[in-house]
Design brief:
Elements lengths: L9 H13 L2 H8 L3 H15 L4 E4 L2 E4 L1 H24 L6 E6 L1 H8 L3 H8 L3 E6 L4 H5 L4 E6 L7 E7 L2 E5 L1 H6 L8 H4 L19 H8 L14 H9 L5 E4 L4 H6 L3 E7 L5 E6 L5 H12 L3
Parallel strand pairs: 3-4, 3-5
Antiparallel strand pairs: 1-2, 5-10, 6-10, 7-8, 7-9
Amino acid sequence: MASRRRLPSLNALIAFDAVARNGSFTRAGQELTVAQPAVTRHIANLEGWLGVALFHRHGNAVSLTKDGQEAADLAISVLDRLEIGLGAIRAAPRSEVVIGASFGMAHLWVIPRISGLRMAAGGAVINFVTSENYDAFDRQGVDLSIRFGTGQWAGVHSDLLFEEETHVIASPDFLAAHPEIDADNLPFTLRGEWLLEHGDQYNVGWMTWKSWFRHHGPPLPAIPKPEVRNFPTLLDMVRAGEGVAIGVAGLDDAWVEKGEIIRLGPALKRTGLGYYLTHRDNCAPATLEVRNFLLGHRE
């Protein structure tokens, strides 16, 4: 008789996946339509089963520990593959357009356009594969993907959505509490303990504090706080006044327009870098319509 698989509860893994993607126990509960305490119990059970902590707690927000990031990469990849694979087996399948993007890009740029995407798809289902590792888009049957870089990736065609433009960002309350910050002399008035870091785990080329200080001249003043893998969570932490971060025009615009986030100093633009929409040869008609819609709404 085959031995029983040594796996934790599937419900716990699904809850962990939702928290890792949303950066919040509350938002994960809303996505799963369960109470937040139930999500908390699932995470506690999974941490007990693994014997490691999966999250750092930051008030209402959470970020992944190193062990948590490894578990999240595995869980998201496996659940994405399971979802896509079982979807292909399901009776009476409908046509589908799968979009790959980082969680931040999906949440902040694509989802606000979801109604138009659905109309453009003409009845095809819109699904997502979210990953910070672009290799996942090549493995998981993705039709369209949004990637940061120079536009040069093997096996895909690339169209520029918008060029990179980054700013140092902070909340009005944080700036009021730290009047020593000089927007005209940021590299020499920012303290290391204030720096919130998104990081670049897969060497995509995103702007980090290390590269920002290298561009401006002075050395990095100190090791920034632990990396926040989820860009929407990073923005929430900035809005809550927990520190300063590097924002991306096109992704943080809504909070800037509301006055919840303030951009400091001049924009930093690196030649040749931007966000690209990629597709492969022989796209289905629905995929081409979704592509044309997204290109029509680029910045």
